[in-house]
Write a structure and sequence with these properties.
Layout: H1 2-27, H2 29-32, E1 41-45, E2 48-51, H3 52-70, H4 76-81, H5 84-104, H6 111-120, H7 133-143, H8 147-169, H9 175-186, E3 188-197, H10 209-219, E4 224-225, E5 228-236, H11 238-242, H12 249-259, E6 268-276, H13 279-290, H14 295-303, E7 308-314, H15 320-327, E8 333-334, E9 338-340, E10 343-353, H16 360-392, H17 397-404, E11 409-415, H18 433-441, E12 451-452, E13 458-467, E14 470-471, H19 478-506, H20 511-518, E15 523-524, H21 543-547, E16 555-559, E17 563-573, H22 581-611, E18 613-615, H23 617-626
Length: 627
């Protein structure tokens, strides 16, 4: 039970801290960018400085963890887009605020406290529940942390958890509030209903010209043609140049020899390790291994734990010291002791998978394509520079294209979505987002900058004219307008019929009697909550919300997928908190977390006001440029 309470408490603290991080992000890093900071300091909170190296380390760690979860599809650009750098910075700033207050309150974290926190961490325990140093070291390796960095972060976390926990423990949601909210959320309602399908209506005749014109005039904004741009452009792509280039066999072979080390797959080894606190124990283990001792059994004997398994790894997957020991072995076996900040390591290689380098003929075409592409890009850069010079000298696009002997093209109408006035998708460069963005960011009569494409080419365009948005002529879209008019007419007829049914119900007729007269069938809903979203429980997504505004016997109309729904509230089922003690307790816990989050946000806001936060924008920009 104590262990369960500890887990729940830790989850509670982490939840509140997450709320504070989110709140800080809502304040906006932009709001606290006030310049300041010196040298390698990323941010300053009161007297606390956040070094650039710490920000880099945390950002790299969080990126690595996220990439392991999401796979190779996550790249640095995507990480920036989802706010990973801001999240890392927010976390460090919030930590610094708590550490600063701890200094003001003369709070300190002792070595015994840190040791107890590490020993109690479930991530570092074995199957028997005892601390496993190898697991601890494997965690540091996976997180790319030194022991000193880990202890520094743990110290800040302990301080933070104590403060956040104190605030959270002071937040209690009243039982009456939880019960009242439960009654509100868990109350359900049942209705009898009729479906008035559109298919039951008689065929509607097409409108005459006068009616159709009037409908079009009233709704012409729904038939607007978008803005189009008339564009003249020069497209400098690599493929056209590649078609005119050739590479000799000798050059291909020379490129193959130069790239041989990077082709194919690297050597991999099945590596494991055992770590000792002192050199003597590691030396004893290495000596016994040289005389034939089994590595796994010896690790168990000397440390009481199994060895740490790295699995099949390449040279670049291990830290330098460990890589040198593991890959320095000429065959399977064990290394001599190697010292790192974590202790003395004895490495063991159980299997060696030789790397493979493909033959020249296997990669000849790929090397040729790579060389041709590189050469074409170099040529494009030269042409692009010449084009820039020509335009800077006053030449028009047409004159520059003629001088450089490059093709020039034009588009009569380019829409933001890459289509022409007939809705056809334009092919080639006009279909790329960067080209469309440039076309609609350039004023009429102006020429854009020379811009790079995703394929390594360049383009430049001139907007010759702007075709403003305008209603499409009725003659051009007559069929669509007729279909829309008929749909609106059917909807109006259904609503009129539904309204007449509701009027009869209000006069005292029962829904069963009305259904018989109309040739319809009475159906009954399942008990519906206010936010019911199950399509199998309700004939209309709008119906549940409307039912909760009615009294028993009252009727309402709601749009359904197949027509209009006429429903009569049949029953209100009140929720009983006494019969749902677990649900009420869970709701009360959620309310307490919400209240604690509100208090914590106010607390964090006050800390920010008390200490101030200064961000060194230049250092942040430098870190993000390298990321």
């Amino acid at each position: 039970m104590n262990l369960l309470r500890g887990i729940v408490a830790k989850i509670f603290v982490y939840t509140l801290f997450g709320l504070l991080i989110v709140s800080f992000a809502i304040w906006g890093v932009g709001d606290i960018f006030r310049g300041g900071g010196h040298g390698q300091t990323v941010a300053t909170v009161g007297n606390q400085e956040i070094p650039e190296a710490e920000f880099r380390s945390l950002l790299a760690q969080q990126y690595s963890v996220l990439r392991q979860q999401l796979g190779n599809q996550l790249d640095p650009e995507m990480a920036r887009a989802i706010g990973l750098p801001q999240q890392a910075l927010n976390g460090l700033v919030v930590d610094a605020m708590f550490v600063q207050q701890a200094d003001d309150l003369n709070l300190a974290v002792t070595e015994d406290t840190l040791r107890a926190a590490i020993l109690a961490d479930q991530r570092f325990r074995d199957a028997l529940g005892t601390f496993d140093r190898n697991r601890f070291q494997a965690f540091l390796h996976n997180q790319r942390l030194s022991e000193a960095q880990f202890l520094e972060r743990l110290s800040a976390q302990v301080i933070r958890d104590h403060v956040v926990g104190a605030i959270g423990n002071a937040s209690v949601a009243p039982q009456v509030l939880a019960e009242g909210l439960f009654r509100y959320e868990a109350q359900t309602r049942v209705a009898d209903y009729l479906v008035l399908p559109a298919s039951a209506l008689e065929e509607i005749a097409e409108p005459d010209a006068t009616v159709l014109q009037a409908f079009y005039d009233e709704t012409r904004n729904a038939y607007m043609a978008p803005e189009y741009r008339t564009v003249t452009f020069i497209d400098l792509g690599p493929q056209a140049l590649i078609a005119e280039m050739s590479i000799g066999e000798e050059e291909l072979r020379r490129a193959y020899e130069e790239q041989a080390d990077t082709l194919g797959t690297p050597e991999r080894r099945a590596v494991s390790q055992v770590v000792f606190d002192d050199e003597a124990a590691a030396a004893e283990a290495a000596q016994r291994l040289q005389t034939g001792a089994d590595f796994a059994a010896l690790a168990e004997e000397l440390t009481g734990e199994p060895p740490v398994e790295f699995g099949l790894v390449a040279l670049s997957d291990l830290p330098d010291e460990l890589a040198a020991a593991a890959f320095g072995l000429t065959e399977s076996g064990s290394s001599q002791p190697v010292e790192t900040n974590f202790g003395w390591h004895v490495m063991h290689v159980a299997e060696i998978q030789a790397g493979e380098t493909p033959g020249f003929d296997e990669v000849r075409d790929a090397i040729r394509e790579e060389l041709l592409f590189g050469r074409a890009i170099d040529e494009l850069i030269s042409i692009a520079n010449q084009l820039d010079d020509e335009l800077a000298g006053g030449a028009t696009l047409e004159e520059a294209a003629q001088t450089l002997n490059v093709p020039i093209d034009s588009l009569d109408a380019l829409g933001r979505d890459g289509t022409d006035r007939d809705g056809r998708i334009l092919e080639g460069l006009a279909q790329t987002q960067s080209f469309r963005d440039a076309a609609f960011a350039t004023e009429a009569g102006e020429t854009s900058l020379l811009l790079e494409t995703d394929e390594g080419g360049y383009f430049i365009l001139r907007v010759d004219g702007v075709i403003p948005p305008a209603p499409r002529p009725l003659a051009e879209i007559r069929d669509q307008v007729v279909a829309d008019w008929m749909a609106e007419e059917r909807e109006a007829l259904l609503l009129e019929r539904a309204g007449s049914i509701v009027a009869r119900l209000q006069e005292g007729q029962t829904i069963q009697r009305v259904a018989e007269a109309e040739g319809l069938q009475v159906q009954t809903t399942a008990p519906l909550t206010r936010t019911e979203a199950d399509p199998g429980a309700t004939p209309s997504a709008r119906l549940p919300g409307q039912l909760f505004g009615l009294e028993i016997g009252q009727a309402t109309i709601a749009a359904g997928e197949d027509g209009q729904i006429v429903a009569v509230l049949r029953e209100i089922i009140e929720a009983d908190p006494a019969a749902a003690k677990a649900e009420v307790a869970a709701l009360r816990s959620q309310l307490a977390t919400t209240l604690a989050g509100d208090l914590l946000n106010l607390y964090g806001t006050q800390l920010q006001r008390d200490y101030g936060v200064q961000i060194n924008e230049a250092v942040i920009d430098r870190v993000l440029a390298d990321f």
